[in-house]
Amino acid sequence: MSQAPPPSFADKPSRHMLWRIVLENTIVGISYMRDRKLVWSNPRMAQIYGYEPGELDGQPVRILYASDHDYAEVGQMIAAKFNNHEFYTHERSQIRKDGEVIWCRISGRLLEPLGKASASVWVIQEITDKKRAEDQIRRINQRLEQTVARRTLNLSRKNAALREEIERRRAAQAASVESREKYQTLFRHVPLGLLVLDAGGEVVEVNRTLQQYLGVSTRSALAKALSDSSYVQLPDGGTTSLASLVREHRYVPTSADPLIFVWERSSRRRRVITMVATALAHGLGHAFVFTDVTEQRRRSERERVQEAALAHAGRLSLMGQMTSALAHELGQPLNVAQSYLAGVMRRLDADASPEIVQAMAKAAAHLEQAGAIIRNVRGFVSRQHYRPAQAVDLPELLNQTLTLLEHPLRSASTRVKTSIDDGLVPINGNAVEVQQVLVNLVMNAIEAMHGTPAAERWVEIRLAQEADAFASVTIADHGPGVPAELAPRLFDPYVTTKADGLGMGLMICRTIIESHGGALRLLNARRGAVFRFTLRQTK
């Protein structure tokens, strides 16, 4: 069946003809079917499948499926799920006229009771690029999960939630009949913002989806939103009204060169792509199509942040390997130096100068301290095999940690004040993992006080005995503290207050503490940030 010629219009066309022209020029494929045969389809649907306008009319829908199996499977799903009160939506691979396989989202509704010759209306959207983008994002998520999976199972749940969020799409709705009500229903319910201008550039129709984008529900609110010159923010930094944007002919966006602007009204902020339907004749002007791409931009930005985080994690891993190798190489010359110094001290006679003896003793003490630092570094960065929990002396572990951090504390002009309860019972856990938490929290405190006057740079650490066989460790700094709006999400992945932070440290710390049966919290404080974690003690 060939495409019917465009009808003749008077100076002011009827709304019935207005719906028809808009639908024949929309960017989604629309068809009317009976007995799984295409009775009518718009030019966009023919373009999606590589046919000429009108070439699909009268054809069986089987030609759009790559195999009889796909065709029969869809028929079975329709028979099982279709009724007069539901929309049916699915995503499926289909085939173009030239044999190319594409992905489409297909939405439809039955217009008559289900039967052999039942009439139905369908909306087709090509989503091939979306499928490719989803595959690419899925591969990135898999690489990221492999990097951090050994530290936390929580991250995999977050990535799964992200994938679900990416896959959520607003289902397309459409309803149509062959009469004027069909075009009116389709225009109102198509899941794209539509705005129609007359020949004079005045707005003659806006559909409900665009009203939702604009955040209006009444005619007076719509008129104000269209004419307010502060709501539309252009790429060049200027502002204008939506009515002026679509009326001006200095810029006519097309599908190849769309106009992207920001719509901001009250607390509503959306990024919108605008395109114009072409070849609208008979004095109707133009029909503009609006698509909200706010979530797509946010997903793209999250993808960029994840890629940067993955690269950062790789650099940190390499740095740990280099540090471990350096500590291994320095250990032997330090041991040799200690041996030589011990030999010299044994050979000093009783008449040796006290100053020389004292200097030699201090040199031996510093060499011993250097060796302890090297051993701490190697133990901290080396690969740790699983071993059962052991009794760990918290005060001793704290002293070792502060020795390990002596250089960063001295470089940052930061002093440490410790308070330890008497009779503190050893905790039950992995010393290296607990030390990792201590290092992370103390380093965070040092970095948080970068802008604090040197005289006020104090880190206060308290080891206390708690009830129910628990010990607590409290670490407080005198920095600016954690912003109130960030505090509830501080332990989530990729959340950080640092300009170059990875956003993984606190999440890993919480996972380690919880694996030891304790809890890590951010406490309210008048000044600075206060973190406290608890650990179960030996019985």
Short description:
This protein is of the alpha+beta class. Helices cover 42% and strands 21% of the residues.
Walk me through this protein's architecture.
- With 539 residues, the chain is an alpha+beta fold.
- 42% of the residues lie in helices and 21% in strands.
- The chain is built from 15 helices and 19 strands.
- The protein has helices spanning 15-24, 43-48, 68-81, 128-148, 154-167, 180-189, 208-214, 219-227, 242-247, 294-347, 354-381, 394-404, 406-411, 431-448, 505-515, and strands at 29-34, 37-41, 87-95, 101-110, 119-126, 193-197, 203-206, 232-233, 239-240, 259-265, 268-277, 287-292, 390-392, 415-420, 427-429, 458-466, 470-476, 520-523, 530-536.
- It has a seven-stranded antiparallel β-sheet with strand order 7-6-12-11-10-8-9. A five-stranded antiparallel β-sheet has the order 2-1-5-4-3. The chain has a five-stranded mixed β-sheet with strand order 14-16-17-19-18.
- The longest helix has 54 residues, at 294-347.
Which strand order do you get reading across the main beta sheet?
A: 7-6-12-11-10-8-9
- Structural class by sheet pairing and helices: alpha+beta
Give a short account of the largest sheet: 7 strands, antiparallel
Overall average residue pLDDT: 77
Distance between the termini: 86 Å
Shape: elongated
**Overall helicity:** 40-55%
Strand residue percentage: 15-25%
Number of helices: 15
Count of DSSP strands? 19
Q: In terms of per-residue confidence, which ranges show pLDDT below 50 for 5 or more consecutive residues?
A: 171-177
Rounded to the nearest angstrom, the radius of gyration is 35 Å
